[in-house]
Amino acid sequence: MTGPRTGAVARGGFGGFVARARAAGTLVVQPRMGMADPARMREGLRAVRDARAVTVGTLTLDSYTRTGDLAAARRALADGTGLNGYPIATHSTATTRAVLGGVADGGFPVQVRHGSPAPEHIVRALLAAGLDATEGGPVSYCLPYSRTPLREAVEAWRKSCELLASAEEFGASPHLETFGGCLMGQLCPPGLLVAMSVLEALFFRQRGLRGISLSYAQQADPRQDEEALTALGRLAAEHLPDVDHHLVLYAYMGVFPATPGGARLLLEDAARLAVRAGAARLIVKTTAEAHRIPTVAENVRALETAAAAAAGEHARLAGSVRGGVRGEPVLAGSGRGGGYGGSLGTAGGAPADGRSGGLVRAGGLPAGALRVEDTGIEAEARALIGAVLDLDADIGRALVRAFAAGYLDVPYCLHPDNAGRTRTSLTPDGRLLWSDTGSLPIAAPRGPRPPILGSAGLLAALSHVRRSYDARAAAGPPTRTPLAPGRPVPLPSRTTSTPRRELGPTTP
Amino acid sequence: MEQHGETGTTGPGAVVTTGLDVVVTTVASDSHTWNLVFLQLLLEELGHRVTNLGACVPDALLVAECARLAPGLIVVSSVNGHGFPDGLRVAAALRARPELARTPLVIGGKLGIEGTGADARRRALLAAGFDGVFEEGGSPGAFPAFLRALAPGGRPPLDGAPVPVVSGARR
Ligand code: B12
């Protein structure tokens, strides 16, 4: 849930767990983790559960399972070729139940992460194994993940959503997360990411889901990200008043810093951003991201690093809000210029709901409470969402028509159903702008918007974040955002087993 | 380096080529495309003409497209960690077609999931029919050198153009 104003009912399962964590003042952190071997997968889940953080677990699936090539998955298991994830539709249901048994429960929900344009076999397998939480979307798991015609992906996702939603009849609490806030992982202006996330959430709702999370992936400028998350929270509350929902932030999804130090700084900034901007859950990246599939230990370290950074940010905000009065800097966003974690800005103001000077809501700020400069992200997202919804009452059909008309057009996406006429401009300080809006129903760019040109230009844009964070790591101890006076940062919580128990259901 | 394809020079007085027709592709399981966009731009800047097949290219489609286009070079890129097994399969499928049996064929990217074992993979991929294997972490100049050897008439890399991080080709 994004706060008391949504009026949604707290539920069990994945969504209920996250809602309780939020109410208790903790950011939920989650890995991207999957390995082929059931014993290692189980070990990984246990390690995530036992990490010093409030965590949910993940089964990340391998590419063969994602693309529906189950014969290749079977072959790889048979001859021991490494897989880049857990082949849930190839291992037997009994095997997956054994992986989860005594580990996954109401106090440690597990989500299946895949990336499939046609996920019915995956939804079937996860339901059979007793799980009910997964993610994706008809657009976000088609365009960046396949060459499947969008129309077919929409149809497959319709069936998959209905199948997942039907599990509610059997006492499950199905939860589905949009991947629309990530798309290609990098170089997509935030207005489109926010719009896609909301549109996929609306698609899920129309297909019967009542537990939804909306994603947004950290980009290259903290202020832009704060603004985008704020817009996403507001639009979600508006469009999904009757649905239990929360925001989930993905730590940077593009070319990752190559050094462990740079990777850690970027992850910490993601965690702080999540807390500031009202996300209830964060999906982490590890120090191995730029190089290879991470180990369990690297995942656990990433979870603990993120949890500690989130706790620190939380304490900082609690301090600055307690001390604030209306009109003074209260919920300050991050500063401009220094990139993530730069100097403290003065963009203050009372929370949008008027509870000025009140305590920061436990679990970070309510979505939408952060005062951010309005550069037009919300208006852009609204225009995109409105134009799509006007095309057809059936959101799946509307999405297909929107891509055909170029009302939705993902920059640099090669999928045949993507018009491919939009382009991005990256400012020197990391803001993502349109250099070409193609047929998007938004204003064409004003002012100089240098396009990204050539292989060198593309590589430079793709590695902007890597470069800045590796440089910051090399420059020595980070210049941390100053704390509110007199408020020490609490040590990373060593007592998360306690909140974990509190968060779990009273009966297993 | 042995020359393949119609655009190669064959001796004194041979026509200087103006670049190759190149198919840029990935393997069936791999949905990453930034690598493909990057390679397309790079190859075009070097004077080649590129057909980019996009994400998750099924073996049959790849073989059919290559048979249809009769390219002077096939560039396979994969970073999802399945590039090694998928690459072995793809090489066998391409080499089984008589008209593609000698088409220059290279692969590169991140081909395994552990970030190690590149040497063994490289040997197996070369044995399977690839003419060059360019894994991340190898010598940066290897791929441009391979291209120059293949199409001497192609333009040299633009000054300041990035060279992909790669390891050595065969020979
Ligand atoms: C962006 C990204 C994504 C985006 C991709 C969007 C898209 N459509 O392209 C999204 C989020 C969708 C995604 C999804 C997945 N991803 Co991904 N992704 C990345 C990420 C962060 C950046 C890749 C990128 O864009 N690089 C920019 C391009 C331009 O460069 P490049 O691909 O690195 O290639 C360079 C060189 O290798 C070289 N090169 C590449 N190919 C070739 C070929 C030749 C011939 C030559 C000469 C050179 C060459 O040239 C490039 C420039 O130097 C990397 C990690 C990282 N690098 O930080 C992970 C990563 C590549 N992904 C990974 C994985 C596993 C996946 C998934 C399977 C999910 C999962 N299980 O975790 C899915 C893919 C599903 C599928 N069916 O395959 C792994 C691969 C692990 C491995 N090989 O050991 C990585 C390394 C992350 C990780 N550490 O786990 N991903």
From TrEMBL, chain A:
Region (Disordered): 471-508
Stored Gene3D superfamilies: Methylmalonyl-CoA mutase
Listed transmembrane segments: none
Biased composition (Basic and acidic residues): 499-508
Database matches in SUPFAM superfamilies: Cobalamin (vitamin B12)-dependent enzymes
Isomerase in keyword set: yes
One GO term of the biological process aspect: anaerobic L-glutamate catabolic process
Stretches with biased composition (Low complexity): 471-484
UniProt KW keywords: Cobalamin, Cobalt, Isomerase
Pfam families tied to this protein: Met_asp_mut_E (PF06368)
Molecular function GO labels: cobalamin binding; methylaspartate mutase activity
This protein's name: Methylaspartate mutase
Source organism per UniProt: Streptomyces termitum
